[in-house]
Design brief:
This protein is an alpha/beta fold and 253 residues long. 51% of the residues lie in helices and 14% in strands. It is built from eight helices and seven strands, in the order H-H-H-E-E-E-H-E-H-E-H-E-H-E-H. It has a five-stranded parallel beta sheet, with helices on both faces. It has a two-stranded antiparallel ribbon with strand order 2-3. It starts with a helix and ends in a 12-residue tail after the last helix.
């Protein structure tokens, strides 16, 4: 995304130079260089990432209720051609590990504990995220009887919509939401839209790498962050246009 923006600026600068609009081309050239440096040296991604994650830096002490749901949001799957297997992506393992940890904490409280895994086959690899992650959780000691799979959602909005239905049907009185720190703000917003208040627990935390020379890693972090901001903007636009499902209040049936 950031490379696309920079590419457009570069092409526009070349076009303006070709048309002899030298002053405008010079301004765009300066803007192109400035943005490249600010992103590549970590200044822009540091601001964007911290703004998204600062609320979730400290993991909360969860106070388990009588009937608990731990919601694990998918982060994709990877098809390993040589092994003909489908596995969680690199970004998913921290979420799976944190979910197993939260389940064991809930289990120790001797209350009712269920894990809801939400995620379809968005990558078209042949198995849903929910099914693939369930295999991983079983290996970590989470009993199959305590796992509920939601294998149809293809994005965060549908994660929230479909999972909220499961939560209401099963009358869970406490919901712990597990996702990446970067993803948590948007996820919590969507679940709230569907009337579900959650205790957010981040599985990981992403940070920029301040450098004197532009680093490709900072461009990647910028793109991850921009994806989240675009999700927020799309939510606000859809609300304004009346395209979103009507917002539900907590406790609505």
């Amino acid at each position: 995304m950031s490379f696309l923006l920079l590419s457009v600026l570069l092409l526009l600068t070349i076009f303006l130079s070709f048309r002899k609009w030298n002053k405008t081309a010079s301004v765009l050239s300066f803007l192109l260089a400035a943005i490249t440096l600010l992103i590549g040296t970590g200044i822009i991604p540091k601001y964007l990432l911290e703004n998204l994650q600062v609320k979730y830096q400290e993991k909360p002490q969860v106070h388990w209720a009588s009937k608990n749901a731990i919601v694990l949001l998918g982060a994709g799957t990877e098809k390993i051609e040589t092994l003909t297997s489908i596995e969680p992506t690199f970004f998913a393992y921290s979420r799976i590990s944190e979910t197993a940890s939260q389940y064991k904490s809930c289990e120790a409280s001797q209350q009712i504990c269920n894990v809801i895994i939400s995620g379809g086959d968005a990558q078209k690899n042949g198995r849903s995220e929910a099914a693939v992650y369930q295999d991983a959780l079983l290996k970590l000691g989470v009993p199959a009887a305590d796992i509920v799979v939601e294998p149809d959602s293809m994005n965060t909005w549908k994660n929230a919509e479909f999972t909220s239905q499961i939560i209401r049907m099963n009358h869970f009185d406490h919901v712990v939401l597990v996702s990446s720190g970067l993803h948590m703000r948007r996820s919590e917003l969507y679940f709230k839209h569907f009337g579900v208040l959650v205790t957010p627990v981040r599985a990981d935390y992403m940070a920029a790498r301040p450098t004197w020379i532009p680093n490709w890693y900072n461009f990647v972090m910028t793109d991850f962050a921009l994806h989240e901001y675009i999700g927020h903007l799309r939510y606000d636009i859809y609300n304004f246009m009346g395209w979103n499902i009507q917002r539900q209040n907590p406790g609505d049936a």
